[in-house]
Design goal:
CATH architecture of chain A: 3-Layer(aba) Sandwich
Structural class of chain B: alpha+beta
Number of domains of chain A: 1
Strand content of chain B: 25-35%
Structural class of chain A: alpha/beta
Shape of chain B: elongated
Helix content of chain A: 25-40%
Number of domains of chain B: 1
CATH topology of chain A: Rossmann fold
Strand order of the largest sheet of chain A: 4-3-5-2-6-7-8
Number of strands of chain A: 8
Oligomer: heterodimer
Distance between the termini of chain B: 39 Å
Strand content of chain A: 15-25%
CATH architecture of chain B: 2-Layer Sandwich
Shape of chain A: globular
Distance between the termini of chain A: 61 Å
CATH superfamily of chain A: P-loop containing nucleotide triphosphate hydrolases
CATH class of chain A: Alpha Beta
Largest sheet of chain B: 3 strands, mixed
Strand order of the largest sheet of chain B: 2-1-6
């Protein structure tokens, strides 16, 4: 006996993501899902970004890691509201799913925020598959990785709305070909905005901050 | 680290079990059919491995997972050209623009179950 089903397997996550989207709309907060491989400099990029955006834009961060609160501790120094999700409690998952985000966002309190950043778990594969109800997705690639990463992980660069190429202060010491890396991103996602920055020296931050500020303003009417 | 295929397998099992009619006594599923897009982040043998582990002592124990791989097709928003994407290149070969929408290739769908007679 055959039973016809035709159902999306991730429908449960999609339903939760829609709930999150409604919640974030009610709270009038712009949500950015930030993703990358481990060690690309997401946390340092965020620390510098928050320092430059606040207090003009009120920012909160949900940090996802398998374990430790190291990143949350670093981000708290900026004065932003920060909460940590350790997926260790949930079996060490490789991504943040939508249901974890809503409870963290409620615990953090979004009523006094313009921007909520979710620093996802370092991984270029799994987080790309899980909608968390965000408004935009950022992917961070660093020049110590490889120019071909966008071709090896196409879904991540396909679903991203913006890309950051970090650690450009190291370029004099590496054979990394920036043009090739950006070309590879554009092969996968031709209109992807790419910002070349150094979170260490803060070079190249202005266009990235402008993109983020305009995105926040377009949704919330705040922050410009 | 738990692979995300475990979560996908768990969802798959939940949907499958919910789909078995209540009036069937001691149901046993022989086959579960799926469609998985080539751009979906699902590794077939990881999914099968997870499925085998979590279906133990359920009506799905020893069921075969039959996976139909779905090619990646896109449409150019500007010139309406549709084509199949072979590699990770999403630029329209006709008008060279890159405003494309995905038509297929990201599916993770359960399509049917086959119950043992």
């Amino acid at each position: 006996m055959e039973i016809n089903i035709q159902k999306r397997v991730l429908e449960a996550n999609e339903t939760e993501a829609d709930k999150n989207r409604n919640f974030f709309k009610d709270q009038n907060v712009f949500v950015l899902n930030m993703m990358s491989s481990p060690g690309s400099g997401k946390t340092e990029t965020l620390c510098k970004t928050l320092a430059k955006l606040m207090p003009r834009i009120r920012v909160g961060v949900i940090v996802g890691d398998i374990c430790t609160t190291n990143d949350a501790d670093r981000l708290e120094v900026t004065g932003a509201k920060v909460t940590q999700i350790n997926t260790d409690q949930f079996g060490g998952d490789c991504h943040l799913s939508a249901n974890l985000i809503l409870s963290s966002a409620i615990a953090l309190g979004c009523e006094d925020l313009d921007l909520l950043i979710v620093e996802n778990i370092g991984n270029l594969v799994c987080p790309a598959e899980f909608d968390i109800g965000e408004d935009a997705r950022a992917v961070v690639l660093s020049v110590t990785e490889g120019e071909d990463k966008p071709l090896k992980y196409p879904l991540m660069f396909r679903v991203a709305d913006v890309a950051i190429l970090n650690k450009i202060d190291l370029l004099p010491y590496l054979d990394f070909d920036v043009k090739l890396a950006v070309d590879n991103m554009k092969q996968v996602h031709p209109h992807l905005p790419v910002f070349e920055i150094s979170a260490k020296t803060e070079e190249g931050f202005d266009p990235w901050l402008e993109w983020l500020s305009v995105s926040v303003f377009e949704k919330t009417g705040n922050g410009l | 680290m738990i692979m995300h295929e475990m979560g996908i397998a768990q969802q798959l099992v939940n949907i499958a079990i919910d789909s078995i009619p209540d009036d069937i006594e001691n149901p046993k599923v022989d086959k579960v059919s799926l469609k998985i897009g080539r751009l979906a982040s699902v590794v077939e043998h990881s999914l099968t491995f997870c499925f085998e582990i979590i279906t133990k002592d359920t009506p799905l124990e020893n069921a075969r997972l039959v996976i139909e791989s779905i090619c990646v097709t896109v449409r150019c928003i500007d010139c309406k050209n549709e084509w199949e994407v072979e590699g990770p290149v999403f630029k329209c070969p006709f008008c060279e623009d890159g405003h494309v929408e995905m038509l297929t290739g990201r599916e993770i769908e359960i399509t049917s179950l086959e119950l043992a007679e």
